[in-house]
Amino acid sequence: MKIATAAYPLDWLDSWAQFEDKLASWVGDAAGQGADLLVFPEYAAMELSTLDGAEVAGDLQKSISAVSERMEEVASLHQKLAAEYKVHILGASAPVHADYALPVNRAEFYCPCGARDHQDKQIMTMFERDPWRIGAGGPLKLFDTALGKIGVLICYDSEFPLLGRALQEADVILMPSCTEALAGYWRVRIGAMSRALETQCVTAQASIVGTAPWSTSVEENTGMGGIFGPPDTGFPATGVLAEGVLNQPGWTLAEVDLESIAHVRAKGVVRNRSHWDEQDLRAKTDRIRLKP
Predict the structure, then answer these.
(1) Where do the structural domains in the chain lie, given as residue ranges?
(2) CATH homologous superfamily for 2-279?
(3) pTM of the model as a whole
């Protein structure tokens, strides 16, 4: 498959038609470059709050509610584009009022056949806990698709090894992110590269880029697209299949061969995935006193 991962700028939208045109342009561009799987960033759906005006877009809780109310309409548009261009799409995540005490951070996954499901973020960052008041949603899922087995770890989730291990059967793990500072971008990137090493799979990071001065939640954004694999047999020595340019909008694309993933798991120089359980025997500490 060919994966396209977005460095996506947020825009002020004056009409729903403007959003339709923007999304269609992005999807058409990726499909025109041969992409089979498209990845949009975490919280990129917050630009939809501008459709309700400056007062709503600039108020955190009002903007969360406004975006949540539009997500079914957003889903219909994505399903249409996935079918039209014959691509799989991980849509931009959004705060969604679901059957939980708090809104959840949810990314919808769309297949060209019309099938659809979602992945909720598992572990909230400090700003999501307060002031956003976003909570954890449903469990991790493994999507068995025509392209292979695909998992999703949303931003902060990518930084937790046991969440990656729960997706050990995935061929590809998608990692949509929203990071204000360069350090935040690198935390997610290091997480993406670490999970690719441990799980011996491919990971794909998408980022919001640029500024959104109308927002109090996603006003500053730093990042770029990146696609990573284990630095081992059949993959680049750096583990980097493709990377974008920092803060430059656009798609980053890479070809991914599922046979290469199977091969490195079975024949790689290292076997992190299959040797994982040996940690249980070794992850103990003897305390040794070496001072007077």
Answers:
(1) 2-279
(2) Carbon-nitrogen hydrolase (3.60.110.10)
(3) 0.96
